[in-house]
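Example 284.
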Amino acid sequence: MVAVRVGAHLSIGGGWAQLISDAVSLGCETVQIFSRSPRGGKARPLGEGEVAVLREGLARADLHPLIVHTPYLVNIGAPEESKWEYAVSVLAEDLTRAALLGSPWVVVHMGHARGLPPEEGLLRCVRALDTAVERAGTAGEGVTILLENTAGGLGASVEALAAVISAARHGGRLGLCLDTCHAFAAGYDLRLPSGQDDFLGRVRRLVGSDRVRVWHFNDSVGDCGSHLDRHEHLGLGRLGRQAFALLLAQPELEGRPVILETPVKGPEGYRPDLSVLRELREGG
Ligand SMILES: [Zn+2]
Ligand SMILES: [Zn+2]
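Predicted structure in complex with zinc ion:
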């Protein structure tokens, strides 16, 4: 098994001190957050005092890296100008907020082109990413955008992710966050060694393993190729426990943070998934 850092997506609704105490109580080694309300709206500015609370808390608890996920409404491939502009402004702001919070990575989903031909949608993604990097400027320096593969839409294939990275002017600021539920729902059969070789082989050849920075470990409610983006607890979905055990032997996971985004009502809900993940990491 490879060495991974285990963690979960936690809410910041109770404040930064609560976030740290939730993460510590769960035994997380890394954590993912929304830096703002996931349902959109204007982000509250971050005060110096609260940033210090967070940074000190993370350091004290040896919690790293901190990963920022953009809100769900962000669609960087949106054909409508207003939705595209909203996506760019939120992404640029989250780059700045991540830099302030001490997070090296902002995760964004590849979008949906709706009625547009996919090639045009991909170009809109490229332009959104470049514009956001330029708009954030020096305030976002040191933060890399991680494109997350999706169950359907523009980011369902490794080829599409690779095309966006290679077409971007600021490709050096882009990497990947790979979600197991999304890859499986998109048609990569991660239950089988051959399916994992196919998926990771494409990643290696087309993007490069070094660009894979973060993993999202979620089981899947939908079957392989169903394009259904519905997460399930580890071992209880169509992927099954063995798929995660196999993944934890792949070099693309060495040293990476593995984040759970399973369906929970509160932080306690992650406990069973975290113990499965730790057992598998120990080789169980
Ligand atoms: Zn995501
Ligand atoms: Zn995910």
